[in-house]
Amino acid sequence: MSFSPSSTAAVAEPASPAPVDSLLASIETDRPDAFVSLGSAFLTRLPAAPLPEPYLVGISADIAAQLGFNAADAQDPAFAELFAGNPAREWPAEKLPYASVYSGHQFGVWAGQLGDGRAIGLGEIEHGGKRLELQLKGAGRTPYSRMGDGRAVLRSSIREYLCSEAMHHLGIPTTRALCVIGSDQPVRRETMETAAVVTRVAPSFVRFGHFEHFYANDRVDELRKLADHVIDRFYPHCRVADDPGDPYLALLNEVTQRTADLMADWQAVGFCHGVMNTDNMSILGLTIDYGPFGFIDGFNANHICNHSDSQGRYAYKMQPQIGYWNLFCLAQALVPLFGPQYDGDNRNEQVIEDAQRVLEGFKDRFAPALERRMRAKLGLAEIREGDDKLVNRLFEVMNANRADFTLTFRNLAKMRKADASGDAPVRDLFLDRAAFDVWANDYRLRLSEETQSDEARASAMNAVNPKYVLRNHLAENAIRLAKEKDFSEVERLARVLRRPFDEQPEFEAYAGLPPDWASDLEVSCSS
Ligand code: AMP
Ligand code: MG
């Protein structure tokens, strides 16, 4: 052994813990107001089942920073080990991960108990005044796995990682993703694939289905405990606001409003979730559980992104009303908690009336929320009668022509008030040019009532109409390379999607129409 100055220094100074060790140390599982502290009626504590020989596929520097560490430290093999479910040492007993139990309605039918069948909570990290919970998706079987293998495949993990980050940068509430870790361990789906784990991050992973679970099992004490946890941590104003007698009704109101906004966000960018079961609905109004999702290319209001959804229950145009339906399920589950201010014979009637009134608020929120977004997408700063018809007619022409959703809105900004000199980029997306021209003339007339200049309108429109979205074929290109262990495209695509509204001339190809092969891509629930 050579005696070098550096080794002397290493002996002289006590070494600070390796970054990955301090990352593990920063994960907390014992705070009394954490989800994990709700106890055994809500979750089972268990170690993850680590993947062999894990490797880093992608990491979000933004989320790493939010968790208080440097993405460069993820190059340490111990990082991949930890986020494949295998900490360098045994899971310390007090830090044992956990899987939660929930139930839900799947495709409109009561499915009974489900739960985190392949998601394992690690605990929370508090950094910079923010508390975030971390969850490994695909880290092995749990008591809620039913027939499943507890795994997720590389394909779906990359899709979830890319899309949750992309949605965030579109300004849409979502769970985030820290990283994807891959392994060569085979996993059987329709074909043989390989396993991966995506680390999701959110303030909370509580779903509508968590409430449905305790309601269905007639466990009102636990139901109340869960509702109190969610209110205290995330909606504390529900205890003091308008309706001091009924914090649970106030909670339903908050979730209703947030879900309405989320539906408006999805519709406005042409995002289809694909599996809007009540167990995939976040109590915080976040987009959660990315499976067979898709951004619409050629517009079709009936677009179904989930190959397994033969009835089109979760088709694009259905999403808002499904969101509303799911809120009914949540309301039903909360009924036992409502109405402490009433007693007597007509308590139930009053409680149902209250809940219905709150749910009605969905419509009052959703319609104007979507209208506002559509007005901004068309660059209409002022409000005029007939604007809604103008929007609807645009969707009709887009629908008839299968015009590309993202490019239509992006290219609308190039139209000019005075003449048709800027029409071509959007007009060329419509096979029936004459039909487009009829609409465009009305739009131009409407624009002439706007006081702002073409330039000002265009820059306002470009700030709300993304140029880059995670089209299926872009994800597919990144996945194909990643299967060959080339992760550069995952990184590049993540980088492009971090600035969806900016012109990025070097990445023009990422904004183009999908290639012909993209129409054969099928995305199913199998992930
Ligand atoms: P999803 O449709 O992905 O939201 O999943 C519905 C339910 O099935 C949830 O309880 C999941 O945890 C569970 N699940 C899905 N895939 C698997 C799997 N491969 N192993 C175990 N459980 C799974
Ligand atoms: Mg799910």
Automatic annotation (TrEMBL):
Recorded GO MF terms: AMPylase activity; ATP binding; magnesium ion binding; manganese ion binding
EC number(s) on file: 2.7.7.-, 2.7.7.108
Enzyme class, UniProt record, top EC level: transferase
Pfam family, one: SelO
Binding site for Mg(2+): 280, 289
Cofactor requirements of the protein: Mg(2+); Mn(2+)
Residues at which ATP binds: 115, 117-118, 137, 149-150, 200, 207, 289
Keywords associated with the record: ATP-binding, Magnesium, Manganese, Metal-binding, Nucleotide-binding, Nucleotidyltransferase, Transferase
InterPro entries on file: SelO
Known catalytic reactions: L-histidyl-[protein] + UTP = N(tele)-(5'-uridylyl)-L-histidyl-[protein] + diphosphate; L-tyrosyl-[protein] + ATP = O-(5'-adenylyl)-L-tyrosyl-[protein] + diphosphate; L-threonyl-[protein] + ATP = 3-O-(5'-adenylyl)-L-threonyl-[protein] + diphosphate; L-seryl-[protein] + ATP = 3-O-(5'-adenylyl)-L-seryl-[protein] + diphosphate
Active site: 279
Family per record: Belongs to the SELO family.
Function: Nucleotidyltransferase involved in the post-translational modification of proteins. It can catalyze the addition of adenosine monophosphate (AMP) or uridine monophosphate (UMP) to a protein, resulting in modifications known as AMPylation and UMPylation.
Protein's UniProt name: Protein nucleotidyltransferase YdiU
